[in-house]
Amino acid sequence: MNSRFVRLPPSIVALLLQLTATLFVFLSISLSGLHPTPLASALLCGMLAAIFSRIAGMAPWWLFIQFVFAPALVLMLSLDIPSGFFLAAFLVMLAVYWSTFRTQVPLYLSSGKVWQALETKLPAGQPFTFIDLGSGIGGVLTHLAKTHPQGRYLGIEAAPLPFLWSWLRLKSSGLRNCVVHWGSLWNSDLGQYDIVFAYLSPAPMEALWHKARLEMRPGSLFISNTFAVPDHPPQETLTVDDLHHSTLYLWRM
Predict the structure, then answer these.
(1) Which candidate, 142, 36, 157, 57, places its Cα nearest to that of 107?
(2) Are 170 and 178 in contact (CB under 8 A)?
(3) Dist. CA 76–CA 73, nearest whole Å
(4) Displacement of CA 25 from its chain's centroid (Å)
(5) How far is CA 129 from each of CA 90, 209, 242, rounded to the nearest angstrom?
């Protein structure tokens, strides 16, 4: 991201750029004397916000969000949906993306083929410990705990609804070698684990790498799904034939 914005969270930068685009469009409309439809005005706002975001160096997915935000808002308002629906939707989104504002890590779900690829990197026939940083709804944990019961598994999840989902999922599965905790991955001591797995976003990878290098034991394995560590090439990569063509990046500490 452009250095002028680097100290601000991307969500704040996106909001400021969206407001700037909206102000620019409405001033232009007022000065020109034109009377475009609300949807046309919203499309102009979205297009301009996406352009501003590109200039600011925001990640590609922010460009899409910036473009669709204002048109989606206009379309939703035109449907005359009861306000309670929006409140309920906001509360659900808050429960799912509780920590995204601070961590810049949205909810990503690993595919079943990624789970199978991870199986190949687990020790065979001997005990080991495995931690999933940002474990979401617990898919990785429950799958591996069943296929490799000799391991002990821990998931860390900061968002309330995914944590609750995964906690109930583990309780109902009856798995005794697997637990999930609600909290921050930054408070976890990675030195306790043989394998550290993460599926986060580009934003925290540099800091996570430094944490892993500081805390993980020699010989332990650090695996990142999709997101590499800047300036630190992995020792091994696994390309997964799933919908997103996921890549696992592996470093032996």
Answers:
(1) 157
(2) yes
(3) 5
(4) 32
(5) 37, 19, 26
C-alpha distances in Å from residue 210, one per residue of 19, 175, 247: 36, 32, 21
Rounded CA separation 87/189 (Å) = 38
In angstroms, what CA-CA distances link 80 with 4, 68, 70, 76?
40, 19, 16, 7
Compute the distance between CA of residue 202 and CA of residue 225 in angstroms, rounded to an integer.
11
**Homologous superfamily of domain range 112-252:** Vaccinia Virus protein VP39 (3.40.50.150)
* pLDDT tens sequence across 77-97: 777 766 565 555 555 554 445
Beta strands in the chain (DSSP E): 128-133, 151-157, 178-182, 195-198, 221-225, 236-239, 247-252
Which residue type does 245 have?
H
Nearest to 196 by CA among 132, 250, 136: 132
Closest CA to 131 of 226, 208, 222, 195: 195
pLDDT in tens, 203-225: 788 989 999 999 999 999 999 99
Beta bridge partners of 135: none
Which residues does residue 182 pair with via DSSP β-bridges, in sequence order?
157
* Tokens 């300036």 sit on residue: 231
Residue 68 contacts by C-beta under 8 Å, 6 or more apart in sequence? 46
Tens of pLDDT along 167-204? Answer: 999 988 889 999 999 888 889 999 999 999 999 888 78
Cβ contact 133:185 at 8 Å: yes
Domain boundaries, the chain: 3-80, 112-252
**pTM assigned to the model:** 0.67
